[in-house]
Amino acid sequence: MAVLAVWLAAAPAHGAAQAGRTASVRQSAVVTALVGATVIDVVSGERRRDQVVVVQGGTIRAVVPRATWRRPRGARVVSVMGKFVIPGLWDMHVEQALPLWDRAPVDSNAALFHPLFLAYGVTGVRDVAGSMAVVRGWRDAIARGEREGPRIIFTGPKVGMAAVAPGAPFPLATAADVEATVAALKEGGASAAYLLALDPDLFPALEASLARHRMPLEGNVPLSTSLRAQAGMGQRVVDHMDGILVASSTDEDAVRRTLQLVDTPTWWSRLAWRIGLLTRPEYPSALALEAFSEPRADSLFALLAARRVYQVPTLRLLGVLNRSGDSAVRLPPAPLALRPRRPFNGWPGEPYPSDHALARTQARLQWSVGAMHRAGVPILAGSDTPNLYAAPGLSLHDELALLVRSGLTPLEALQSATWRVAEYLGATDSLGTVAPGRVADLLVLSADPTLDIANSRRIEMVMARGQLYDAARIDALRARATRSASEIETYWIRRAETAR
Ligand SMILES: [Zn+2]
Prior knowledge:
The protein is an alpha/beta fold. It contains 18 helices and 15 strands. The radius of gyration is 23 Å and the shape is globular. The protein binds zinc ion.
């Protein structure tokens, strides 16, 4: 429900005392009719041909067969004959409010991210990092119609990475630190606490603080705990398939202890590796892979399904790390191929051989996504843009393709970015489908994405909050983002030069 409250706070219809109301009132009177498309019901997969989608004031008012439709006086009629209409897409793992380059101003990120999200049909995002004040400012300005961009929900900075807000304690050493952190997230408007790392002794304090502030837990599964324990504690979302391999291994505790040593070596583990008393794994996941047990995985997936623990697999990340030759993972066109924050080698490059630990990890995680999905674990699509060259918006389409490669049907992959999101937000009556009463966030595609997920990229028009972006406006969005990308890069280069 906390998420729903955030959602409602962001909806423009609530709260009458808003400046610039006259313009939006005039806007809300205009009726736009998209005429002649096949409307895809992403819940059932049903395709209704030759429909009219009637939009007014940011809301879908009607979806009716063209034969029965009567054009209202003054309506703006847009022909979409032979096209396909689906709901707007959500990217459920983005990090748009961190410095793109060393000390580049975070506020300028919006000029790069927001036009691209819209141009590629991403009309909603879940932000999991960066300043809450900045993200909240964007969210509210977009909701008021003062800024173009997607709907935004955010978890705020990751717990255990840095102070979540100015003045909040870091590192987290006591129960009082944990309480102050969760309170700061609540105060800042975060929809959940995103956990990155925490001392095992502090988990009871975290559980108590989350309950006190009615904050859900999301994010990673640190090596200091187990996925089964986190699911028991009510973790609502697991990002990056964290903890899946460890929790599916035959000797979970032993695997976790060794991985913890690799993560934070002690003087004696360094010594033991040096003299050959212990073997340091070449790639940490290889250890969990060797101990992977399909029956253990099946029991884990049954637990995750029973507890409705949503997964945001971010498969694209591993595909890039693995220098995948996979056609689903594409390098975006320059200059939108964002430079990684930290030095990173490996793209573009030769794919690793299939017996390499990274290639095997990728294969196992894709298998796991398919198996979880079949077990009834809800899957959400997230790209982790801008990490590892993930261009905003565009990279979500890579992720959808990878979900299909993992065993979801194209329709199910679409659900992971539409209907499942509405379900996660507790907002199925306002989001996630093209139906009367739902928000007017939608895509017009030139080909059917339920036949081939690659068709999700064939975007002809995007509607966000009832605003229609046709081909010309989409081109303008892309041009604006390209200009911003080179401006941010120029800024970064200049800083580097003055530092020299
Ligand atoms: Zn991330």
